Amino acid sequence: MKFYYVYMLKCSDDSIYTGMTNSIDRRLEEHKLGLNIDCYTYRKRPLRLIYHQEFMQFDQAQFYEKKIKKWSRSKKLALANEDFELLKDLSICKNETNYKNFEK
């Protein structure tokens, strides 16, 4: 059975890279060696794996990767640190137009 992985790397400039692969060991080695000069992580080595999640279906992994890529740095770090309470707090909409800000 083939598995897919969504992963996050912490880069040397403190940025976070999110990606997806079907071979996490191979992909991490590619990042580490800097095989692709056009890759975001090429000039941001060394890298450290801070999170990964395994999926059995490509569609699930792809959906999750796209979702996480839109998240703030704080939310990504909360997920990587397994701080689910903070992740929940960071997920609450704080816009003025949120329905919770209107009197009933």
Automatic annotation (TrEMBL):
Please name the CDD domains in this protein's record: GIY-YIG_UPF0213
Give the source's domain of life in one word.
Answer: Bacteria
Show the coiled coil region(s). Answer: none
Name the PROSITE patterns on file. Answer: GIY_YIG (PS50164)
Q: Which Gene3D superfamilies does this UniProt record tie to the protein?
A: GIY-YIG endonuclease (3.40.1440.10)
Please give the SUPFAM superfamilies that the UniProt record associates with this protein: GIY-YIG endonuclease
Span of domain GIY-YIG: 2-78
Family recorded in the similarity comment: Belongs to the UPF0213 family.
For this entry, the protein name equals GIY-YIG nuclease family protein
Q: What is the lineage of its organism?
A: Bacteria, Pseudomonadati, Bacteroidota, Flavobacteriia, Flavobacteriales
